[in-house]
Specification:
771 residues; alpha/beta; eleven-stranded mixed β-sheet; 22 helices; 31% helix
């Protein structure tokens, strides 16, 4: 099998010209139609034997003429189902036996350690979509139609092997017709664990705002509610969404008010690609991304004729778009409004709601109606968010559709658990050469998110039947994840936030050597007790040197300055300008109070954060003095540039202090002020500011390369979600001959640091870690 490791053990034993082989196939090979495919292939080549699921993968014993066996093995690689991923095949010779055919055997676990992988939740396939909309089909308008090529997987799995008794479908007994499909190897629904129909499967119900059942057809009534501009909370694949008509500005504004989400963009779901093109610019790569089986949200540029409600994505030139990925979504968009706001059903930054009773309790007062069903969701899973940059689809939030497909590592090692940080939390379980990175859990600042974190950690360990040898956490002593780790009866290791970012980028790219890590974000606890975030690190997972950082600045009021960028702006001006200028943004705020704190240096934290620099410049330009979500001011500053980066730069300086280079930003602040006072537009200032950072980072990386001889640059950190900065850095570094490592499988933000933590943990266990 080309492209797959075939490990052969023993010599074939021939009987009357036949041989028998045992194949243990590992990868994503359960719940994706692999067994019926193997059955049909074996029968087609006149082979005998069996196939069955085990905890260690799919076990195949196959017997026949050697030439037929070889064709069979080649077909496993070249013709397997599209959702299958064969990672490795262990092959051995067996004595031939007397048998008359090929059979599909019952699954078995037998207490063995689980080695197989679980497929992610997959979007509705074209065959099921056609049946769903065919009035002559017995599953016409059945909102839970699925087959082996699509439908729920991870969110309904409670254990392995992936068989119906171990899923949330265990309470639904198949009718005779579904049962027949389920047991027919030539049927598309052979062993499709969620297989069902309207006679035997999950059902929809429509409830009013108080949880009381409403009469009539649940789908038709929900569609009518949406057309009237009402808010419907609907239970989807990995949890509940709030849905409203995306053309109805009043409805969108009402949802914002009730949900407590003042400005953060909403995602939308559109009926088909023709609608997407009518509202957005769509490249070939973005079109492909919208139509892949994972069905992520893709951030697209709005076109000039976009007439959707302005409140969907205020002050943002992009729109988060997805196509309907479940049969329920397909029906709603066919029978109701053709474009719906489809956003996680929660209040503000709480985790997504996943069960009916929880929804009725937590979403009361927001939803006008609840469209629910009776298939349990075992583990909540938000929609994934992606963006197409520099020739690749890149994750900003990796969740539904991708979880729990592993990130494949260069080599195996100890079982280690990385538990992420406080924001955009994920956890990673390392098992062999697989990094099992969890779905997006969220910000660990409320009880619901913390509970979700605990459930996810327990679920991963239970599902893959392992206990970690080491738990790795962030150095920040105040993080909920750190405090959770300290109560575990497992050895612990704390690692620095930005080192974890660099290690994650190296691991994702299977990079063995050291790199120059340009790690740019908003907040990361430094080894010196200050807040880092504009860092140039040199090293690998075993250890790093802090080669350079941004000039340290004060944040008056500490974390308050994160949500009130005007404070950061005032502090940056205070340090940078000998004579404090009076700028328009100061009129709306109590600057005297903050100036007194700065004079006395009371209630301050010191930071080298790149994220805070963006905040300060945005506030100085009077774009945003206070923010309602993380990165809001920086995003508005980026969009002010109009999609282009300047050619001219503000001043900056590099200065060596006590063995570390400092990237001085005081000159940048001084020049921004001078530009404002001369009447330069905010758009031109934004373009010039972005160019300044690109030039500064090029210069400092060149110094690091000259010092070390390293020509590999790794880019990580939430600031790298800035498309102007990211694409310019990639282009400039590649042009100068650097090998540029970036994130694509994982987000550049804190959603990736759990992987880096776990990788560092493996080096620690091998005695190779230098803190």
């Amino acid at each position: 099998m080309a492209g797959v490791a075939r490990k052969k053990i023993g010599t074939p034993l021939s009987v009357q010209g036949e041989t028998r082989r045992r194949l243990l196939v590992n990868g994503i090979v359960q719940g994706v139609g692999f067994r019926p495919f193997v059955y049909r292939t074996a029968v087609g080549h006149a082979l005998t034997g069996f196939i069955r699921n085990t905890a260690s993968g799919v076990l195949i014993e196959v017997q026949g003429l050697p030439v037929s066996l070889e064709k069979f093995c080649c077909a496993l690689q070249s013709d397997h189902p599209p959702l299958a991923h064969i990672e490795a095949v262990e092959e051995s010779a067996l004595d031939c036996v007397a048998e008359t055919g090929f059979v599909i055997g019952a699954s078995s676990i037998g207490g063995a350690e689980v080695e197989t992988l679980i497929p992610p939740d997959i979007a509705l396939c074209s065959d099921c979509r056609r049946e769903l909309l065919d009035s002559a089909n017995r599953r016409f308008r059945y909102p839970f139609i699925n087959c082996t090529n699509c439908g729920p997987r991870y969110t309904i799995v409670g254990g392995l092997p992936y068989d119906r008794p171990f899923t949330s479908m265990q309470g639904f007994t198949m009718c005779p017709e579904c049962e027949k499909e389920y047991h027919d190897p030539f049927d598309r629904r052979f062993h499709a664990q969620p297989n069902a129909c309207s006679l035997c499967g999950p059902t929809l119900s429509l409830l009013d705002a108080f949880g009381m059942p409403l009469p009539g057809d649940a789908l038709a009534e929900s569609s009518a509610f949406l057309r009237k501009g009402l808010i419907v909370a609907l239970k989807g694949l990995g949890g509940f969404h709030f849905a409203v008509d995306a053309r109805n500005e009043e409805a969108v504004r009402r949802l914002r008010t009730l949900k407590g989400r003042e400005a953060k963009p909403f995602a939308v779901m559109m009926r088909d690609m023709s609608l997407v093109r009518s509202f957005c610019e769509v490249s070939a790569g973005e079109c492909d991304a919208l139509n892949i089986a994972e069905a992520p949200i893709v951030l697209l540029k709005k076109n000039k004729s976009c007439t959707l409600a302005p409140s969907i994505a205020p002050d943002n030139n992009r729109l988060g778009v997805m196509l309907p990925y479940t049969p329920l979504h397909t029906l709603l968009l066919n029978e109701g409004p053709d474009v719906l706001v489809m956003t996680s059903a929660n209040f503000s930054e709480e985790p997504i709601v996943n069960e009916n009773d929880e929804a009725l309790m937590r979403l009361k007062g927001i939803a006008d109606a609840f469209l629910v069903h009776d298939r349990p969701i075992y583990l909540k899973c938000d929609d994934s968010v992606t963006i197409y940059l520099s020739g690749k689809l890149r994750q900003l939030r990796r969740s539904r559709g991708y979880i729990p497909a592993p990130v494949y590592l260069r080599e195996g090692g100890a079982t280690v658990l990385g538990i992420g940080g406080e924001f955009k939390n994920t956890v990673t379980l390392l098992k062999g050469s697989h990094a099992l990175v969890s779905q997006h859990i969220g910000d660990m600042k409320n009880f619901e998110a913390y509970s979700h974190f605990q459930q996810t950690v327990a679920h991963l360990q239970r599902l893959f039947q392992v206990t970690p040898e080491l738990v790795v956490h962030d150095l920040h002593p105040g993080y909920m994840t750190t405090q959770w780790a300290e109560h575990q009866a497992i050895p612990l290791l704390g690692v620095q936030h930005h080192h974890a970012h660099l290690a994650a980028c190296l691991a994702e790219n299977k990079e063995e050597g050291a790199a120059i890590g340009l790690v740019l974000d908003g907040t990361g606890y430094g080894k010196d007790g200050t807040i880092w975030g504009g860092e140039v690190l040199i090293g690998d997972a075993a250890g790093v040197e802090r080669f350079a950082s941004f000039e340290s600045m004060s944040l008056p009021g500490g974390d308050v300055a994160v949500t009130q960028p005007w404070r950061a702006a005032l502090a940056y001006l205070y340090k940078s300008c000998p004579d404090l200028p009076y700028l328009p943004f100061m009129k709306e705020h109590n600057i005297q109070m903050v100036l007194e704190l700065l004079d006395k240096q009371v209630n301050m934290i010191e930071t080298s954060s790149c994220g805070r620099l963006f905040d300060a410049v945005a506030a100085i330009c009077n774009l945003r003095g206070e923010v309602t979500y993380e990165g809001e001011a920086a995003i508005i500053l980026m969009h002010a540039a109009g999609g282009t980066i300047g050619n001219k730069s503000f001043r900056y300086a590099l200065q060596e202090e006590k063995g570390r280079w400092i990237m001085l930003i005081s000159p940048i602040i001084q020049d921004v002020v001078a530009a404002l006072q001369k009447g330069m537009s905010v758009s031109d200032i934004s373009r010039r500011f972005h160019r300044t950072l690109v030039n500064c980072f090029q210069d400092i990386v060149e110094k690091a390369s000259q010092t070390t001889g390293i020509k590999t640059v790794a880019l990580s950190g939430g600031v790298l979600q800035n498309e102007l900065l990211f694409e310019a850095l990639c282009h400039e570094f590649q042009t100068k001959g650097y090998k540029v490592l970036t994130h694509a499988l994982l987000p550049p933000n804190d959603g990736s640091i759990s992987l880096g933590q776990a990788i560092i943990g493996r080096h620690y266990l091998k005695g190779q870690y230098l803190p």
